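Record format v2
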Amino acid sequence: MKKLAVTIDDLLFKWGDGTPCLTIPKFQLYHGEKVFIKGPSGSGKSTLLNILGGVLAPEDGDIKVLGHDYALMKMSQLDKFRADHIGFIFQQFNLLPFLSLLENVCLPCRFSSTRRARAIDEFGSVEQGAEALLKRLGLMDKHLYQQNAAALSVGQQQRVSAARAILGSPEIIIADEPTSALDVDARDQFLALLLSQCELSGSTLIFVSHDSALEHHFSQKLRLTPSSNGGYSL
Amino acid sequence: MTLFHLTWKSFLNRKATLLMMLLSISMSVVLLLGVDIIRQQAKEGFSSTVSSTDLIVGARSGQINLLLYSVFHIGNATNNITWKSYENISQDANVKWSIPLSLGDSHRGFRVLGTSSAYFEHYRYGAKQPLAFSQGRGFEGLFDVVIGAEVAKKLGYNLGSPVVIAHGMGSASLMKHDDKPFNVVGILKPTGTPVDNTLIVSLEAIEAIHVDWQSGVQLPGSKVTAEQVLKMNLKPKQITAFMLGLNSRLSTFHLQRKINQYRNEPLMAILPGLALQELWGMFSFVEKTLFAISGLVVVSGVLGLLALLLSSLNERRREMAILRSVGARPIHILTLLILESLLVTLLSVLLGIGVLYLVMFYASPLIQDQFGVRLAVQGLSLWQWQLVGMVVAAGALAGLVPGYRAYRHSLADGMSIKL
């Protein structure tokens, strides 16, 4: 039987001023699944991701990730949990421009001993893991690795971000419009690489975008739609 | 790759602005330490003007006045004391040695001191150092004069140079003892004390140039020539003050009381150490003001750093959000900012100390040349290290403010990177 990676029940999120923003009556995601969540800008995509990451706490409702109930966890426990089990890829400007490619990819393994241990387990060392993943994601040129991330094209930067999110095999990977800054060819290529790498590491992928053209890559699709209370619901 | 490594790389990324900050703080450190070093050395130089002397005796006035005219050759004695009193007291069983001092004449702005050969034998300055000759010897003949290092340098005198002594102080239109010129027979090594600015002759010489004078003017028609004066009895009748060295320091207070209660003449004996302290205390407000100003410069430097760090926070919000998304906790963000301001102040302090020593190394000879004050290049004192420590601590504290703000930001922003 497949295990549940994420379950959300009757979730309600409001901003500080009380305007309702997001309601999620029911959401379930199994290990290894890949879900596409479509929503227009302003529909609370980033809010959803911050809730899934445990950075924002909902007004009401339950959220369980990998069997951990966020409501019962302290801020520091959530921080550790996120560092150990969730990899993030954002729209753009994912990388610290003053660090080299390799240093950027290795960052999560510096903050999480769990991910460091897994990377060492899989590749022998964190750096070797970083190099292997960069290669798999199509960055073959080894002398690029020592260069500052700022020197890369946007497409290359997104691949580096993907390698960073995957290194240390976190159970869940959250991608927030990672392809919106890419052209069509680069976009499809990136998405194919990302999906195959998630497959390889067995990670669950939550992919958020406004772009319907990407939908066909995913088996499971969801939509953020306007709800009667003025916010959006999933 | 540690947090420090991250801080360092981030620092290098913004090096232009941070370097300016670094320079500004390091200059304030140079000022702070510089003022303190000058203060400390001035105090040391000041208190090393006279050493090993147990008592200074003069006419009754204030102890600072007596110290000023007898040791620093500043100002004038209120009254002279008789040679008889000097002889009486210096023959006391407790007295080991005595140096008579007779002041009142000058040569081109430099004081002339009449004394005995005991001066070269017993006078001590600094760490009980005796006077030493760079050239020549002490006075033997009546018209021999020994000059301080500064006098020799400023006036360009050598052994054998003629010296005419003027009556009173000042360098213009004084009555001169030009009928009885002196000859330089010795030049003293520099001491960093008022001795450098003094011409030293024998008491008899002082007596000799005044034999035909009365009440500060030369008596008309009673000129005594230099040849005649050699044959005269030149036993001094009065002197200005004298220094005493005692056999045992334990008898200092006893003898002081005895002198202060001397019946034949109103006398006063002072302990030079105490008087020096009291005199320095009078300067202490200048010293404190200077120190306060340099302290404020440091404070303004640190506030500048604080302002810079705060204003850079906004543009660094993305950096913080990225770090949060890769697993950094808010405490890491806080640490990052404190490390950064610590790094800036630490580098500033190191640069400041470096610049300070460079300046001292090159300026020390210039200062000695211009002001006659010797600036010793020496290590930082414990207090100065404490000052440095306080600057670094203030820098780290300054990092706490933006650190806390970034901490709050990163809690509120989470990982959503706002454009």
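The first strand of chain B starts at residue 55 and ends at 59.
The interface with chain A takes residues 1-2, 6, 9-10, 12-13, 318-319, 322-330, 332, 411, 414-417 of chain B (CB under 8 Å).
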